[in-house]
C-alpha cells in the first residue's frame, strides 16, 4: 500500500485569493490548464472518491508532472475545495442569483431547482462526484465535511426563506414548515440521483424531479399552483 499523500489531520492554510491581473497569454494558458486539472479531478473523484484519488493520477490525466500539478494546487485538499467552489459558483450564478433575496418567489425557486436537475444530467461526472463525496463526507475527518454541512444548511435556509416570504405574501399556506419541506426536497433530490446512477441513466431524472417539485408546489401554495411549463 502506498504512503498517503497528506497527513489526515494536518491543518493547512486556506489558499490565498489571487489578485486581479490583466489576462495576458501566459495567464490565459494558466487558466486553461487549471480548468483541465479541475475536469480531471472531477472524473477521478467521481470514480474513486476523495480518499482513493491520487494526485499523480490526476496529473497523468492532464499530461503534466506531479510537480506541475502542485504548482497549481499544493495539495489534494486544495484541489478538492477548488472543484467544490467552482461548482458552487456555477450553481449560484446560473440559478439562485436570479432570485430576489429580499422577496424570494417560492414558485420561481422550485422551477430553478428543476432546471438545475436538467443541467446536472448533462454533467454526469459532476453529479456522480457529489454523490460519492457526500457519502464520504459523513466522517468529520473528511476535508469536505464542513463544506457539505454548510451547503445543506445554505440550501435549507434559501428554501425556508422563500416559503416564509410566500406565507407573508399570502401565496403559501400558513403554518407550512419551510425547513421540513427543504429537508424533504434535498432527500428526494439525492435519492433520485442515486436511482439515476443505478439505472445507468435510463431513469428520466429531470422529469421525475420536476413532477415531484410540481407536487410540492401544489401542496404548499394557497391556490394549488403548480410549476407550469418548463423554462
From TrEMBL:
Source taxon at top rank: Bacteria
UniProt domain HTH tetR-type: residue ranges: 31-91
Pfam name, any one: TetR_N
Residues annotated to bind DNA: 54-73
Biased composition, class Low complexity, residue ranges: 1-14
Alphabetical UniProt keywords: DNA-binding, Repressor, Transcription, Transcription regulation
Record region (Disordered): 1-29
Gene3D superfamilies: Tetracycline Repressor, domain 2
PANTHER family: HTH-TYPE TRANSCRIPTIONAL REGULATOR BETI, HTH-TYPE TRANSCRIPTIONAL REGULATOR RUTR
Protein name as it appears in the record: TetR/AcrR family transcriptional regulator
